[in-house]
Amino acid sequence: MKKRFEKINKVGGELSLTGDKSISHRAVIFSSMSQGRSTIKNLSEAEDVRSTMKIMQQLGASFMNDSEKIVVEGCGFKGFKKSVSYLDCGNSGTSARLIAGLLAAQKFKSTLIGDESLSMRPMKRVIEPLTRMGTHFNATANLTLPLTINPKSEIVPINYEMPLASAQVKSSVLLAGLHAESETKIIESFQTRNHTEKMLGLPIKYENGKIISASSKKYYPKPGEYFVPGDISTSAFHIVLTLLTPNSELLIRDVSLNPTRTGFIEVLKKMGADISFEDIRTSSNEEFGNVLVRSSSLKNITINSQIIPNIIDEIPALAIAGIFAEGDFLIDNAKELRVKESDRIHSICLNFKHLGLNVEEKQDGFSVDGSIKNFNPIFESYGDHRIAMAFGILSMLLDKGGEVNGFESVDISNPRFEEQVRSIVIKS
Ligand code: S3P
Question: Is 125 touching ligand 1 by the criterion CB < 6 Å?
Fold first, then answer.
């Protein structure tokens, strides 16, 4: 579906977003693992989270809508049952990798499948540690989906020094580790999002610049009441749109402010953005609060490699801020962008080239400078929700607007994107 966006003149008012996608996946998985009834408020409406719910249902959990919340009947320790059909993760890497960790510790065989994009994304990163924990896998020659998980023994606890910065891999190993008496340890050199550790109440230590988290049977989840704060990654698009539109001010209510997720706000503030946090609270060990944003003039800065894992999902939105900021925009040390829902380095560079900007594509990033020469662009989403939203907001900032092909991919994380934007655009 091709979507046209016209230039906007002003952003204002307030916005509440549906639940954070990462926290929602975990609330669904942890409540399905618990013995008995849990509730989830403000669950994400993302297609990715629906994929996780459907798989948990196939394994025996049940979900009911009860006005403001979802009521979950979980299965308990090793209480999941074998599914008669394949488990379809759709477009969702988080579903595939986290659920692989859970299935590695069950008593039955399962097969995970996914759509075309997910079937090209690397699974070796979970196959390798979970094999060390005693599980057998059958995958394609490239170690991608379809992936058959064939547990052969009880889970063997491991100490795992992460070879790459990935919260999905970390979570997968920690979830398998919840099924053994002794501790499985994860050692990270780069901080990645820590929702799994926080929501399960796992111990976290900091030693010689490394982050060490651990799981074991005593941390197996119990039924609970989850509140999922608004999606901070989704808010990146609304924040950048507000910053770059003159005379604008936007309040985003009850959004996740977990410090492993707010890296892009730190970057934007260093670029000169007027953004502040208000009314910070905590629920299920997760911080959330309100974010106030005002139009700002921005200057590009050097983005430190340590922060890359914390801004990885927001780089498409930051790149849009970057082309309107003074100086050249440069991202490096970000080769993980190549294995997201699309090859995001390539997707962003091709769309920027289309505007007539000077773009240099590198193995682990890109740089961009120059001025916009094409004022009638048609962008491609490459089937990637965050590329669709990034070039949707860019279109709204161009004098003659712009179009995005394949815009339906926004449903993967935010089916309400257009409705949200309409509600904050002020017509003058
Ligand atoms: C996620 C982790 C990140 C992120 C993804 C969601 C998660 O991937 O890009 O959108 O919920 O754990 P990594 O595994 O590369 O950190």
Answer: no
The alpha helices in 313-427, defined as continuous H runs, are 315-324, 344-354, 385-397, 417-424
pLDDT digits (tens, 9 = 90+) for 344-383: 999 999 999 999 999 999 999 999 999 999 888 999 999 9
CB-ligand 1 contact for 171 (6 Å cutoff): yes
Over range 290-313, report the average pLDDT: 98
Cα dihedral 353, 354, 356, 357 in deg (nearest 10): -40
Model pTM score: 0.98
How many whole angstroms from 126 Cα to the centroid of ligand 1? 13
What value does the CA radius of gyration of the chain take, rounded to a whole number of Å? 21
CATH architecture, range 21-214? Alpha-beta prism (3.65)
pLDDT tens, 59-85?
999 999 998 999 999 999 999 999 999
For residue 12, report the distance from its CA to the centre of ligand 1, in Å.
31
CATH for 3-19+230-424, among 3.40.50.720, 3.65.10.10, 3.30.70.360, 3.30.460.10? 3.65.10.10
Confirm or reject: Cβ of 44 under 6 Å from ligand 1. no
Domains 3-19+230-424 and 21-214 equal at CATH topology level: yes
Query: Which atom of ligand 1 is nearest the CA belonging to 196?
Result: 12
